[in-house]
């Protein structure tokens, strides 16, 4: 097992590349227990994990990402029973949605309990909780619950505001000199961040779109009488609510149809503007899974502009459009 001296220093020199096996999971768990940072695979994107109950460990997330301290983090736990202990009001909406979609790509914003430290919430009285579905993340959570808090804070493992990582290599290229380890669990199968639902308001509000759509949320809530709405502006009380986010270095231009896209390509060629075009996939689940890799690959060629054909605004296409509009927003 890796010695503790490799990861307790505040000045990380080497990022360990851990294999997704029993030894790798044990190493990741030991690093977390000792107050270090480990990038972990989830079904959504890779998360930069640290012990959610250790203020010093959590501070390393903010430093590595250059993330504003006021921007809240999501706590990942093994199951809904663990989630309840981090809230003093895990209400019927939270119970219903957690029971319906966990483990999975859904985050619930609930009233925090005394177990939640201020560094997680930015001083707010709410906390964001998620039970991830990725088998490797679940194994780490289970192992960490045996030797530590069993709660892992894990925002996306990239610099704040930039394109999220969906492979271990993405993490290494972004964060290799700033974190203790990355556990390689393969490519993320969903590819975009979790849906966030605020369960503390009436009606419940989706604060960030994801694979769990408004329609799915309201179908699950039908027997409760609650009807969720969407709220994407106002105070940034949950991750992903900033106007500009998920952004590559190049400017991003968005197009609703191929005719408009083709016309703009001609404009770029005529004016000698370097560009890369992303058409995505007609299968919106594949589009979501490959979105961040496509943005990263396009950016690697250092174009002036990245031109993107938007998907249809249905099912997960709504969330893809949200990410792209934020990637294209003024910075």
From TrEMBL:
<dbReference type="Pfam" id="PF03481">
    <property type="entry name" value="Sua5_C"/>
</dbReference>
<dbReference type="InterPro" id="IPR050156">
    <property type="entry name" value="TC-AMP_synthase_SUA5"/>
</dbReference>
<dbReference type="InterPro" id="IPR038385">
    <property type="entry name" value="Sua5/YwlC_C"/>
</dbReference>
<dbReference type="GO" id="GO:0000049">
    <property type="term" value="F:tRNA binding"/>
</dbReference>
<dbReference type="Pfam" id="PF01300">
    <property type="entry name" value="Sua5_yciO_yrdC"/>
</dbReference>
<protein>
    <recommendedName>
        <fullName>Threonylcarbamoyl-AMP synthase</fullName>
        <ecNumber>2.7.7.87</ecNumber>
    </recommendedName>
</protein>
<dbReference type="GO" id="GO:0003725">
    <property type="term" value="F:double-stranded RNA binding"/>
</dbReference>
<keyword id="KW-0808">Transferase</keyword>
<dbReference type="GO" id="GO:0006450">
    <property type="term" value="P:regulation of translational fidelity"/>
</dbReference>
<dbReference type="InterPro" id="IPR005145">
    <property type="entry name" value="Sua5_C"/>
</dbReference>
<feature type="domain" description="YrdC-like">
    <location>
        <begin position="22"/>
        <end position="212"/>
    </location>
</feature>
<keyword id="KW-0548">Nucleotidyltransferase</keyword>
<comment type="similarity">
    <text>Belongs to the SUA5 family.</text>
</comment>
<keyword id="KW-0067">ATP-binding</keyword>
<dbReference type="GO" id="GO:0008033">
    <property type="term" value="P:tRNA processing"/>
</dbReference>
<dbReference type="InterPro" id="IPR010923">
    <property type="entry name" value="T(6)A37_SUA5"/>
</dbReference>
<dbReference type="InterPro" id="IPR006070">
    <property type="entry name" value="Sua5-like_dom"/>
</dbReference>
<dbReference type="GO" id="GO:0061710">
    <property type="term" value="F:L-threonylcarbamoyladenylate synthase"/>
</dbReference>
<keyword id="KW-0819">tRNA processing</keyword>
<keyword id="KW-0547">Nucleotide-binding</keyword>
<dbReference type="GO" id="GO:0005524">
    <property type="term" value="F:ATP binding"/>
</dbReference>
<keyword id="KW-0963">Cytoplasm</keyword>
<dbReference type="GO" id="GO:0005737">
    <property type="term" value="C:cytoplasm"/>
</dbReference>
<dbReference type="InterPro" id="IPR017945">
    <property type="entry name" value="DHBP_synth_RibB-like_a/b_dom"/>
</dbReference>
């Amino acid at each position: 097992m890796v010695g503790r001296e490799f990861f307790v220093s505040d000045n990380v020199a080497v990022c360990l590349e851990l294999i997704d096996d029993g030894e790798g999971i044990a190493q990741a768990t030991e690093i977390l227990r000792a107050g270090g940072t480990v990038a972990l695979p989830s079904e959504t994107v890779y998360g930069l994990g640290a012990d959610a109950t250790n203020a010093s460990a959590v501070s390393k997330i903010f430093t590595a990402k250059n993330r504003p301290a006021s921007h809240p983090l999501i706590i990942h736990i093994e199951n809904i029973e663990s989630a309840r202990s981090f809230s003093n009001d895990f209400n019927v909406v939270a119970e219903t949605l957690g029971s319906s979609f966990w483990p999975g790509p859904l985050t619930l914003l609930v009233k925090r309990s005394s177990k939640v430290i201020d560094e997680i919430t930015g001083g707010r009285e709410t906390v964001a909780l998620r039970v991830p579905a990725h088998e490797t993340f679940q194994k780490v959570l289970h192992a960490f619950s045996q030797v530590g808090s069993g709660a892992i804070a894990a925002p996306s493992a990239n610099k704040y505001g930039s394109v999220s990582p969906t492979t271990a290599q993405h993490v290494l290229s972004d964060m290799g000199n700033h974190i203790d380890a990355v556990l390689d669990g393969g490519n993320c199968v969903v590819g975009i961040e979790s849906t966030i639902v605020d369960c503390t308001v009436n009606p419940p509000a989706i604060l960030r779109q994801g694979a769990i759509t408004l329609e799915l949320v309201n179908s699950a809530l039908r027997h409760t009488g609650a009807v969720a709405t969407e709220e994407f502006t106002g105070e940034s009380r949950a991750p992903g609510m900033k106007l500009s986010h998920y952004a590559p270095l190049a400017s991003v231009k968005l197009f609703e149809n191929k005719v408009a896209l083709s016309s703009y390509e001609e404009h770029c060629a005529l004016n000698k503007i370097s560009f890369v075009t992303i058409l995505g996939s007609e299968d919106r689940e594949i589009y979501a899974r490959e979105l961040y890799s496509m943005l990263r690959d396009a950016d690697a060629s250092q174009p002036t502009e990245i031109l993107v054909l938007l998907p249809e605004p249905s099912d997960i296409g709504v969330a893809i459009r949200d990410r792209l509009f934020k990637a294209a927003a003024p910075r």
